[in-house]
Write a structure and sequence with these properties.
Blueprint (H helix, E strand, L loop, with lengths): L2 E6 L4 E6 L10 H9 L5 E5 L5 H9 L4 E6 L2 H9 L1 E3 H4 L10 H11 L5 E4 L4 E4 L6 E5 L12 E6 L12 H13 E9 L2 E5 L7 E8 L2 E4 L4 E2 H4 L2 E5 L2 E5 L1
Parallel strand pairs: 3-4, 3-9, 4-8, 9-10
Antiparallel strand pairs: 1-2, 5-7, 6-7, 10-11, 11-12, 12-13, 12-14, 15-16
Length: 244
């Protein structure tokens, strides 16, 4: 009988599949997105990157893509720029398993190539051994990035969706509008619910969801509005009042 354990990153999910053999099945969906659509993605901004370990890994895996990894927390950006992470600090980024140390070490070694990282389980640190020049960390307010219109092929949000970071109020609406503004027509938007593509027409508030179907990707025929992805509302007497 197999025992399936799940771990979550801000960018996707990996599966730990233990069938008694000790094998681990890794599944990091965002990597598959870049493998499929990487030729269309040359400039990416990640909003809410925290200490930035996921962006470093993406930068290593996609050296021809330029990443801006941003967060409003200046302390998190300082950690990201230092290239030294405390394991307890990056476990919320996905490296958290209720598992034995050997499994955890195998997971780190799979995602963090030895030529780039040194893992010290005794000291509880992960150290970057060489620079990743295509990743730049920057302190940015996701609601007001002050970046140019239509300047990114892909926008990534981590846990910015929902009540974890933004309540469903006007600040959430501002986040959606800012993403719509800085994303190029036909650019990709990734959030915790999946992958979307911006329409290439005057109605740039519309997005198409891209679904993975086995080994292929399929775009939904009906568009999804930015208002649906970033609703603004607040609770009054247990009733949801929508803001538009």
């Amino acid at each position: 009988m197999s025992v399936r354990k799940y771990g979550y990153t801000f960018l996707g999910r990996y599966n730990i599949l233990d069938r008694g053999s000790g094998n681990i099945e890794h599944d990091w969906y965002i990597n598959k997105v870049f493998k499929q659509f990487g030729s269309e993605i040359s400039k990416v901004i990640s909003l809410g990157c925290s200490v930035g370990i996921n962006e470093v890994l993406l930068g290593i895996n996609n050296p021809d893509t330029y990443f801006i990894a941003s967060d409003i927390d200046s302390d998190a950006i300082c950690v990201a720029n230092s290239g030294v992470w405390n394991l307890d600090d990056i476990r919320p980024s996905g490296f958290a398993l209720a598992s034995i140390d050997e499994k955890l070490q195998e997971l780190y070694e799979y995602f963090c190539p030895k030529e780039y990282f040194k893992i010290d389980f005794q000291r509880g640190t992960l150290k970057l051994l060489r620079s990743v020049p295509n990743v730049k960390f920057q302190e940015i307010d996701a609601k007001n990035t002050e970046l140019d219109d239509d300047s990114f092929d892909m926008v990534i949000t981590h846990m910015l969706g929902g009540e974890n970071c933004f309540p469903y109020d006007q600040s959430y609406v501002k986040l959606g509008n800012e993403i719509k503004r800085i994303l190029k027509p036909e650019g990709f938007f990734w959030n915790e619910t999946g992958l979307f593509k911006k329409r290439n027409d005057t109605d740039s508030s519309q997005f198409y969801r891209i679904l993975k179907k086995k080994d292929t990707y399929e775009m939904e025929s009906s568009p999804t509005s930015i208002e649906y992805l970033f609703p603004g509302s607040f609770k009054i007497h247990d009733k949801m009042i929508c803001i538009r």
